[in-house]
Specification:
The chain is of the alpha+beta class. The protein is built from 23 helices and twelve strands. It binds adenosine-5'-triphosphate and magnesium ion (MG).
Length: 455
């Protein structure tokens, strides 16, 4: 890649100060007034040039982290591998990074790489130009200068932006080896911006994807959330699968997608959940990562559940064991923070309660703090064709619209003239695992029909 400095004056580009958040402007002004260089860079500039709303604002400066800290009371220094300053305004965080420079001849205290070429420490400071070539893609290396509102471009990012191209800066293989997460970022930006990758940026992902296995699982979890909860989750998911990266992040899910066991429902469930997630994000609604993680691992969890049933556990017990097991196994690939794994298990555990509502239990299920998530999950399962959930979904939808008295009436009606759902005959209990799941789904049929009748 040729390095050629171009300065695009304010008249020639579309980024206006008014589009930049007040907090980011405050940081830029204070750095500038203290005599430092201060640029808006990364997604902030890229997205504004594309007429999109930036997710966050990142700032680059020649001030060292300690100098940044001394300028802002609300500043925290974070990261060992890559030291950064976070300026906190309530929940809004402005990230300030000191210009990075080349590693040659630097001590491992500041710059280090492992045998695969992965950068394990990146705290060598440099000039603006050096900083530009250490960034990932040319469209992410455009610098908006707060001094004169111009944009500085060293790597042809402006042209790539206009041509809708995603191009890695420098030697692509070296850059992927330095930080394999750049492959996930490539997929995310290609999906979000609907950009084409240049040949090498594209092709080498297939060859080097395996390097992701060496990345700390907590970082992979963070990236996974950005991929699936960034508003373009479905497209990201499809691209991840095309590039064979999804199987590295969620091997059990990929195996389940490819198995004949669930009649293609694993894929359908994921795609439908992502469609819903993207739609919610587009309309400004919140999304909880635990719900989607519960979707990703639902059918793998079932496969484990059947295994536990075959080893003599009862349905509910097997569900608990399988939930625990599948989460532990997933954590070898992406971590799952406890608050999310707890909620995933709550969503799963609520499914049999929703499928077999009893007079005594239904009101309790309704007042469970996870009811909404569990209910949405049931609707999703129904939507992808899991057997005989339709009437149950209707019943749970209806009960939410009723007042307390009518809700109790609906629950009372469950107890009348019906075979108690969830109770199995002795003969059935002695059946094998797969027969038992079949028996359980027959039971659901029965419940569903009676529920429909009772309404
Ligand atoms: P968004 O915030 O919309 O996800 P972004 O491009 O701003 O996109 P950030 O993760 O906020 O992404 O990073 C800010 C900038 O830091 C990037 O635009 C890029 O210039 C640089 N950067 C981030 N991660 C890497 C990386 N792994 N390798 C090289 N440069 C990176
Ligand atoms: Mg950003």
């Amino acid at each position: 890649m040729k390095i050629k400095k171009q300065i695009i004056s304010r008249k020639e580009h579309s980024v206006a100060r008014d589009d930049i958040s007040n907090n980011a402007l405050k940081v830029l002004y204070r750095l500038k007034d203290a005599g430092f260089q201060a640029y808006l860079v990364g997604g902030g500039v890229r997205d504004l040039l594309l007429g999109q709303k930036p997710k966050d604002f990142d700032i680059a400066t020649d001030a060292h982290p300690d100098e940044v800290k001394s300028l802002f009371r609300n500043c925290r220094l974070i990261g060992r591998r890559f030291r950064l300053a976070h300026i906190l305004y309530g929940r809004d965080v402005i990230e300030v990074a000191t210009f990075r420079g080349p590693h040659e001849g630097k001590s491992p205290n500041h710059a280090d790489q492992n045998e695969e070429g992965r950068i394990t420490r990146d705290n060598v400071y440099g000039s603006l130009e050096e900083d530009a070539i250490r960034r990932d893609f040319s469209i992410n290396a455009l610098y908006y200068n707060i001094r004169d509102d111009s944009i500085v471009d060293f790597t042809g990012g402006m042209a790539d932006l206009n041509n809708k191209m995603l191009c890695m800066i420098g030697d692509v293989e070296t850059r992927y080896r330095e930080d394999p997460v750049r492959m996930l970022r490539a997929v995310r930006f290609a999906a979000k911006l609907d950009f084409q990758m240049d040949q090498k940026t594209n092709d080498l992902i297939m060859d080097l994807g395996y390097l992701l296995e060496d990345i700390p699982v907590a970082r992979l979890f963070d990236e996974t959330i950005k991929l699936f909860q960034g508003g373009y989750g479905l497209r990201c998911f499809q691209l991840l699968r095309e590039y064979h990266l999804f199987e590295l992040l969620f091997p059990m899910t990929e195996a389940s997608i490819n198995s004949s066991e669930h009649e293609g429902r694993t894929l359908k469930l994921i795609e439908q959940a992502l469609r819903n997630t993207d739609e919610r994000i587009a309309t400004g609604k919140s999304v909880n990562p635990a719900f989607f993680l519960a979707v990703l691992l639902w059918y793998p969890m079932h496969e484990h559940k059947n295994h536990f049933i075959e080893h003599g556990e009862h349905e509910m017990e097997a569900l608990l064991s399988a939930g625990r097991e599948v989460i532990i196994r997933q954590q070898a690939h992406t971590s799952i923070p406890k608050r999310f794994s707890l909620m995933m298990r709550e969503i799963w555990h609520m499914q049999p309660q929703l499928q077999h509502p009893t007079r005594k239990r239904a009101m309790r299920t309704l007042s469970n703090k996870r009811f909404r998530a569990g209910y949405d999950f049931l609707l999703l399962r129904n939507k992808v064709g899991e057997t005989e959930l339709e009437s149950l979904c209707e019943w749970w939808t209806a009960i939410q619209t009723k007042n307390k008295l009518d809700q109790e009436r609906m629950c009372d009606a469950l107890g009348k003239g019906q075979k108690k759902p969830g109770r199995r005959s002795k003969r059935r209990r002695s059946k094998t695992g797969s027969q038992m799941s079949h028996a359980a789904s027959n039971e659901t049929n029965h419940t569903a029909t009676s529920l429909a009748n009772s309404e």
